C-alpha cells in the first residue's frame, strides 16, 4: 500500500515518514521470531496495567508487525486498522479511553468486530521525532489511564527500545563478522598476534591459506621471522628486530616460498602493543599481493613496452633519455641518439601483408638489440620508427660503426611465406652535449638529421649539423608567413590551358595554379612556399581556398557562357587527412550548381602511395563515381607500380615536364603514351615549350599538352579573351598558336601545382 492509499484509509503518516521507514527496515531482523526479553516486557506490562493484551510492534509501510505479545498471537495487522499508526505521530503516549466514543476509531475493525474499547500506546523512539512502533496495551472495556501510568508505560517502551537496539547491535556484529571473514578471503588478508613475553603466535584461517600450511601445524615465531626476512636481506632482518624490541612499525613487501614451494608476494603490516614500558604484543596483518604484483608488472609492460616487439616504447624511451642525459652531465660524458626509419616499409605491408610487416619489425628489433646490446636502449616509437640511446660514447665514430653494422644486418633477406625480401633503413644521429643538452631538443635534432637522410636518397646515416636546424626554422617561419597571408587573402588562382593535340585543336580545360601575392616579394609560384603544403593545417587551408575559388570561378564562367571545358585542381595529402574530403567536394559543387563532370582532381603518385593509401583510394573512387575525373600527376617521378594504375580510378596520366627535356627520355614518353592508350586513359604532357617538343608528342599520338608554348598561367579575368583568341589563331593548326616568340626564351620559374 502506498502512502496515498494509507491516507485514503484515514491512516495518517508522519511528515518524516520516509526517514522513519528507513529506520524500521533496520529492525525488521532477518532471523525474525519473538525475543524472550521483549515477551517478558509484554508480560510485565500485562501484569502491571492489568490488561488482557500487550504488544511490542513495528509500524511498517503496509502493516503493523508484532514482535512480541502477551495474551494474543503475532499475526500482522493491516496498517489501516492499526491504532498504533496514530501513536507514531509523536513522542508522547497515545491514550484512547473509549474507542467507540472516539471519531477516529469507532469504525475500526478491531473496535467493531473484536470489541476493542481501550488503547494505550507508547512510541518506540529511536531519536526525537522518529518512532519505530509501539509498546501498546489493549482492553475490551473502557478505562481511565492516569499520568503516572503513562509515565510507567513510556519507561517500559524505553526498555523495549533498548532491547531492540541491543538485538540490532548483536545482529550487526554477526553480519560484520561474516563480511570481515568474506573480505579477508576475497582480499587474501590474514591477521596474527605475537606474545613477545612467551613467544606464542596465533593467526587467522587465512594465514594458513596464504602460506599453504597444514592447519595441524602450529606457527612459531622463528618460522614467521624467517619468512619475513631472508638471510640475505639485512634491512628486513633489522626491521623485524626493531619491531619486536623497540616497537617500530613494520611495513614491507617480501617474496616468500610457501610450504608447497610456490613463490608469492606478501605485504606485512605490524605494530606493537606496550605494557609496563616494553613491547608486550605485536599485532599485524599479511596480505597476498601476488596478483597485484603480476598486474603491476603487466601494467608496466603495457605502459612502457611495445606490444609487438617487447622493446621500450615512447614513454620509457623518454624516461631513459632524460636519465642518460642527466648521468652524462654528472660524469661529463656524451650520449648518442639515433633515430632510425625503415625505407618504404609501407610497401612491404601493402604488397606482402601486415603479417610480413610485423615479422620484419620483430626481426629488426632483434637485430638492433644484437648490435647495441644491453648497455644501450633500443626503443620502438611507433610504426617503423626506432630510436637508440647510446650512453658513455666517446666520438661520433662510435655511432657510425654501430649503424654500419645495422645496415649490414638489414641486407640479409627475410623469408616469409616462401618469399624472400630485404629492406634498407635511414638514420639520423645527434650527440649530447655537442648538439644539445635538453632531451626534447636533442630528439628534435636527431629527427632533423633523419629527415635529411630520407631527403638525400635514404639507406644512409646523417649526423646532425646546425645548419639543418636553421632550414627547419626557416620552414617554420615560412609556414607562419603563409598563415598570415591566408588571413589577409594574399593568395589567388591563375589558370593554364590544356590543349588537345589532335586536329581540330581545342582548349579542353584549365589547370588551377596557386599564386602568392607576397607583400614584399611580389608574385610567387608554389615553388617558393611548397614547404607550407607539408604542414597539415596550412595544406588544408590552401586546398580549401583553391577549391572555393575555382568552383566559384567555374560558376561565373558558366553564367557568362564561357566554354572552359574542365578545371583541374591539385589535391594534397593534408586534404585527405580530414577524412571527409568526398563529402566536402560534392557539397561545394552542389552548393554552387557546378556539374561534377566539370572538375578534374590531380593527385601525385606520392600522395596515392603515401599517407593512408587505402583512404585516398576510397575517397577518389567515390568522387569518380560521382562524375569527377581523376588525373595521376607527375607520372613517372614517384614510386607507384603499374599494378596501382588498375587499383585506383584514373582517367588521365600527366607526363612530368622533366621527361621532355632530354633526348634519351623520348622512349619513356612514348612508353607512357602507349600505356595510357592501352589502359583507356588520356595522356597529358606537361611543360611543352617549343614546336619541336610539340611535333614529337603529336607523332607519338599524345592526347593533350600544356606549357608555355601555348600560354603562361593567367588570371581568371584573362581566360575568356585567351579562349576566344586561341580559337581564332589556331584555325585548326596547333603549330601556329604562339604569337609571342619571347615566351620560349623567358621561361618562368619551375611550374608547381596548386597543392603538392
From TrEMBL:
It comes from Afifella marina DSM 2698. This is Diguanylate cyclase (GGDEF) domain-containing protein. PANTHER family: BIOFILM ARCHITECTURE MAINTENANCE PROTEIN MBAA, DIGUANYLATE CYCLASE DGCP. Residues 475-727 form the EAL domain. Residues 333-466 form the GGDEF domain. GO terms for molecular function: catalytic activity. Residues 250-301 form the PAC domain. It comes from the Bacteria. SUPFAM superfamilies: EAL domain-like (SSF141868), GAF domain-like (SSF55781), Nucleotide cyclase (SSF55073), PYP-like sensor domain (PAS domain) (SSF55785).
